[in-house]
Write a structure and sequence with these properties.
Blueprint lengths: L1 E3 L1 H14 L4 H18 L4 E6 L3 H15 L3 E6 L3 H4 L2 H12 L3 E4 L12 E5 L11 H12 L4 E4 L21 E5 L2 E2 H4 L3 H5 L1 E5 L13 E3 L2 H4 L17 E6 L3 H13 L4 E6 L12 E4 L3 H4 L5 E4 L8 H13 L5 E5 L7 E2 L2 E2 L6 E4 L2 H8 L3 H6 L1 H12 L2 E4 L5 E3 L5 E3 L12 H14 L4 H23 L6 H6 L1 H19 L1
Parallel strand pairs: 1-8, 2-3, 2-5, 3-4, 5-6, 6-7, 7-9, 10-21, 11-12, 11-14, 12-13, 14-15, 15-18, 18-19
Antiparallel strand pairs: 1-10, 16-17, 19-20, 20-21
């Protein structure tokens, strides 16, 4: 569940070696054995392992030793002459592999492109990549990608920044990654996640971190179960909050948001509109047609502002924020879509505070930060974190592997969701789900996290039943209840495993 940066991993590795007195070569041998076992699971008959000069290469040498021990057909191509270049544990790993009879050669241009094997193991570079690959390393990566064999990366694909997921140019395109001890944050977020393929975590004996160490994590049902979902027999609609929805120019968007809030469990959904509704809403909702929409939601515990709003002014948003900040009881708010434009000020972004959840897609995030959309997509983690810092709000940056960033630096990555959600109105449903969870009393970070998980799971379920091609935003709404059942099923399954 934890996701670690390269610096955090170095600290855990150091603590294990220095505090628990576990030699580094022992950890390296555990890593090599984990890679060898992953290779065996794939039933690869002939294996080529590409090793660099550091500890990642050492893992590769010991993987070759274990495969040789198991009777596998394995050979190593080294980026450098291991006899003359390797040092420390990596040199000891090479010596162990050579003593076991592992065959090896030093890389020559073109030798990887024509490699004849069932599987390539990428042990070229580990978690220290922070700049573009050059020279032989770049050529080796290009040749591995051009080879016909699938690639299994050790710890992280060569070329991915382990802390940020950034890719600077040439990068190994793996079908599988074996992460040592903990998955690296860089393979959980895009673009790194696209290059990592399926990630499996191997326990190699690294000292476990403490929860208070502030690590990033995936959104996980067990993490949120104790904060949501209990319903008492003597409860009533007021027990589960009132979610107010602004109705703007595109009224359908507000209706989708309202449905999302209701399905997520809000006790009452209130539509505040300044004009007659074009279509009769569901009878489940309360409709208030008033000239001052902000004041119409004075009794709400959560507000969704932005879906279908149309032209929005900073003054309009200011009025809403003042009502929320001056309310006698806690009120939280989702700002989405057109509502986000009101955050731009002449001297920067408006700092609204932690009771707000911002839900931009990459283009909206870019407009707020003054970046390009391409920059946001290339540096998603940095973009979400910077927007959270600048506004003081929780930021949910939409897209594959949605990022939820809190202003205090906490980060969660949502693992659910697929192409079924790539449809108009999907974001309105998400805003409504988060609003419904806020109305029930979840804090901004937890509501955004759980909302993203439920929304993504509902999209997956709808797509599986209807195909991603045919799924609509309304279909996603219909599957929110099944996503909630899935949420509880996973919590229950994990509880059974713990017993």
């Amino acid at each position: 569940m934890y996701l670690v940066t390269s610096e955090q991993m170095r600290c855990f590795d150091h603590d294990t070696i220095e505090t628990l007195k576990v030699p580094g070569i022992v950890l390296m041998d555990h890593a090599g054995k984990a890679v060898a076992e992953a290779v065996q699971r794939r039933r690869a008959k002939t294996v080529l392992i590409v090793c660099g000069k550091g500890n990642n290469g050492g893992d590769g040498w010991l993987a070759a030793r274990w495969l040789r021990h198991y009777g596998g057909d394995v050979r190593v191509v080294s980026a450098v002459d291991p006899v003359l270049t390797l040092q420390g544990d990596a040199k000891l790993a090479f010596d162990m592999a050579q003593a076991a009879g592992v065959l090896w050669t030093v890389y020559e241009p073109g030798s990887l492109r024509d490699a004849r094997c069932d599987l390539i193991v990428d042990a070229l570079l580990g978690t220290g990549t922070t700049r573009p690959l050059t020279g032989a390393y770049r050529d080796m990566v290009d040749e591995m990608n051009e080879a016909k064999a699938p690639i299994l990366s050790v710890d992280i694909p060569t070329g991915v920044n382990a802390s940020t997921g950034e890719v600077y140019g040439a990068c190994v395109k793996a079908s599988e990654t074996i992460a040592m001890a903990y998955e690296k944050l860089g393979t959980a977020v895009t673009p790194g996640a696209i290059y990592a393929g399926t990630v499996h975590v191997a326990d190699i004996g690294i000292k476990a971190p403490l929860p208070e160490e502030g690590l990033a994590s995936y959104v996980h049902p067990a993490q949120l179960r104790c904060k949501w979902g209990s319903r008492e027999a003597l409860s009533h609609k007021g027990s589960y909050g009132r979610c107010g929805i602004y109705v703007g120019e595109m009224q359908g968007a507000a209706m989708l948001a309202a449905a999302g809030a209701a399905r997520a469990g809000a006790g009452l959904v209130i539509l505040a509109t300044g004009a007659p509704l074009a279509h009769a809403p569901r009878p489940d909702y309360v409709v208030r047609m008033v000239s001052d929409q902000a004041s119409a939601l004075h009794d709400c515990t959560a507000i969704v502002y932005g879906p279908g709003l149309g032209a929005a002014s900073s003054q309009h948003l200011h009025g809403l924020v003042e009502i929320i900040q001056q309310a006698q009881k806690p009120v939280r708010c989702v700002i989405d879509a057109d509502g986000l434009t009101g955050l731009r000020q002449a001297n920067g972004l408006w700092r609204v505070g932690p009771q707000f959840v911002l839900t931009p897609h990459p283009k909206e995030c870019a407009q707020l930060l003054g970046w390009t959309t391409a920059d946001v997509q290339a540096h998603r983690l940095a973009a979400a974190s910077e927007l959270a810092r600048a506004t003081g709000a929780v930021v949910l940056l939409k897209g594959y592997r949605t990022i939820i960033a809190a202003p205090d630096g906490a980060v969660r990555i949502n693992p659910t969701g697929d192409a079924s959600l790539a449809v108009g109105g999907s974001g309105d449903v998400l805003a409504g789900i988060i609003g419904g969870l806020l109305a029930q009393g979840l804090d901004s970070f937890d509501a955004a996290s759980l909302g993203a998980w439920l929304h993504g799971c509902a999209g997956e379920l709808a797509g599986a039943a209807l195909t991603p091609i045919s799924t609509t935003a309304s279909d996603v709404i219909d599957y929110i209840s099944r996503a909630i059942l899935t949420f509880f099923d996973r919590v229950e399954a994990e509880s059974d495993l713990e017993v």
